[in-house]
Amino acid sequence: MKITTKFWIGLVIFIVLSPLGLMIPDHFKAGSAWGEWGAEEMQKLVGYIPKGLEKLSSLWNAPLPDYAFKGWEEKGLTHLSFAYIISAILGIAIIVIVIFVIGKVLVKKRD
Amino acid sequence: MHIPDGYLGPATCGFFYVAMLPIWTAASKIVKKTLKAKQVPLLAIGAAFSFVIMMFNVPIPGGSTGHAVGGVLVAILLGPWAACIAITVALVIQALLFGDGGITAIGANCFNMAFVLPFVGYYIYKTISYNAPMDSNRRMIAAGIAGYIGINVAAFLAGVEFGLQPLLHHTANGQALYCPYGLKVAVATMAGEHLLVFGWVEAVVTALVVKYLQKQVPDILQKGGM
Fold first, then answer.
1. Whole-number pLDDT of residue A73
2. Which of A46, A57, A90 sits opposite B6 (nearest CB)?
3. Which of A75, B20, B63, B221 is surrounded by the fewest CB atoms within 10 Å?
4. How far does B86 lie from chain A, in Å, by closest CA?
5. Residue ranges making up the domain that contains B41
6. For residue B170, what is the DSSP state?
7. pTM of the predicted model as reported, rounded to 2 decimal places
8. Which chain B residues have a beta carbon less than 8 Å from that of A52?
9. Which H helix or E strand runs over B208?
């Protein structure tokens, strides 16, 4: 088997296992990464929401915030895991397309 | 380590966008010169790998989470410039599609994770594995150490960027406008977490994959480094 084929299979395995990245932190009651809190969490941490942070934090509305579907925040871990896998597939698909486009542009003049 | 929107002030955001411009330009030029068409799939796999490995959040029980970046491995396989492009693409997609890392902080996040991390890791790997046979354990250990140091330098920088904000931007009564934690707390936390936990994840991932490649396709390691 070609090594790139093995790599693609490896990526599929990573995608399938990716919900572990949700479940394990959940099991150990770990919260957000340091410095990646939402405005409400910030209020709890330091007692106020920094003005600039409040303004800028809502600057961008990502279509799949935190690798989940909008409105699924309160759903259980099973739903979130499903959304996580879909996010991984979608993210990787777009990344692969973008890199192939970059590759086309950068290496077109040779070969 | 994905700095969100609102944590860095405009000066810092602008500074890192400006700093990244010549780096992205150089990366495109160098990759254009050295990347072969048949290496493009490997570049895509590298970017996808970095993206998905960052989804594996590792907990500090009762505390925060973090993850590996996989960037040192991509640099070992494809060279630091190609790694810079691969990780940049992963970070931009994470910011735009998933809100992981801010739009305004793309410059800073790319500087830490797509520039400093792969370059530091790559040259440490090259130095430690210098003249080592392709199948040697020294090469695997070099990869592990490179991963550990690469991610730690990046995390330290992120800590400095966070920590400078209260100095740069605050209201008259001392309230921070952006990240409220100063250098002491931000650097100690970012560096501490990565030195103790997440750095080891990067080290193990990098070393294990290099070990696997030594067995399966040793020539892929030989070609590495454009």
1. 76
2. A57
3. A75
4. 8
5. 10-223
6. B
7. 0.95
8. 6, 9, 169, 177-178
9. helix B199-216
